[in-house]
TrEMBL record:
Superkingdom per UniProt: Bacteria
Protein name as catalogued: Thioredoxin family protein
Organism the protein comes from: Flavobacterium lacisediminis
Every Thioredoxin domain range: 333-467
Pfam families, sorted: Thioredoxin_8
Amino acid sequence: MIKNYIKYFLPLSIALFSTLTSCKKVFKEDNFVAYFGGEVLNPQEKYVLFLKDDEVIDTIYLDKNNRFMHKFDSLAPGLYSFKHDPEYQYVYFDKNDSLMVRVNTFDFDNSVVFCGRGDEKNNFLMELYLKNEADRSLMYDNFDKDVKSFIKNIDSSFAIRKSFYLKRKAEIGWDENFDLVAKACLDFHHITKKEIYPYAHQFRTGENIRTKLPSNYYEHRKEVDFENTLLTNYSPFIKYVSVMLNNVALQKDHLDLNENSLENNIEKLNITDTLIKSQKVKNVVLNNVAMMYLLEDQNMYNNQKFIERYLQLTTDAKNKKEITEIYNSVQNLKVGNRLPKIDLIDTANQPIDINNIIKKPTILFFWTSHAESHFVASHKKITDLKAKYPEYEFIAVNVNDTKINWENALKKYNFEDVNELHAVDFETIRKQWVITKIHRIIILKADGTIKNGFANLFDVNFEQNLK
């Protein structure tokens, strides 16, 4: 893919040549001028957002040819991200970099290619990201393995990606600042699997494997810099911290294996408060713990106790507001209520009001083409449930996808006998129905009222909800 980027960028490069060739004139030792541009194939919006630490710096509009270009008079070196709803990716800028990116929304991550000054580093990050994603799709079966087999498997996988990292580092010759990001992308994926294994193995097999772990199993924790604000909003770091906190909390003798229990999650808040001294990093981690918990636990009393502890520890006003809004939305989804109205369409492109179509007990399940393995697994699970519970209606709701991506995914797999709907606006359904975990299930009674708003399709006891 990357070897062919020249043919893709040639027309765009010619169009922007006059702008970019002037870069040498403005690149001086005492300034931080940088350029960011590119092309969006099959755009879903009229603009691209440019962000730093999840905060929008600029909105860059597409021209009539779906191209964009922006000059930054001063752009500090570091990690940024660009977003074309609903997708985003990272981009790293060194001083005076001049980068163009080409993306196709029909296959966003796999289509991202950079060209220009600084392109080699960014293309490396994309390649490593895609290698990690491919590895992630294979890792779940490995959690069933014994300790020795599991470690052998992940060490072998890590060695392959590390060899790739070292080769590209030698070829490109990047500095230590970029290496911080590159190493984080490499290492956190590996050690995240190590943290997940003990509780995933027990959850999947019933065997408590912890006493069989090598004495040096958690040595990697000593190498993690939890105070480094440069990685605060970098998803590999956030994912690692999340699963590490979960693992540590579940190791407590007085806590159960239910990672979503009130006790476990208050323990995560307390561990975060003790472990991380940087308030900036602490706020991000606390917010992540709160977000994950509120989307799982529907016990209103528990939610209130959790929120009280969270508000004691965080100092971020924006996060407080967001978590409070989610808390209020969760309250609206309690048993006996009706679902807030959301704009949905069916496969005939007709608008659907969910509260008008419920005629019998119904299961709503959710999917996105960005989590393809879940998409397939959930539909297969529903097919099995339909045979066992014919008295239930099963409705699939696609979220966080464009209409075209939704339709393409349905054509690719052609799952039958499931009523397929698409959420027109992801942010609305995310907030109103509190959908941010894709395995979430909503169970409705025949009258359309909520029976259970926070079930998990893959919970071993899930079918108890249907009896």
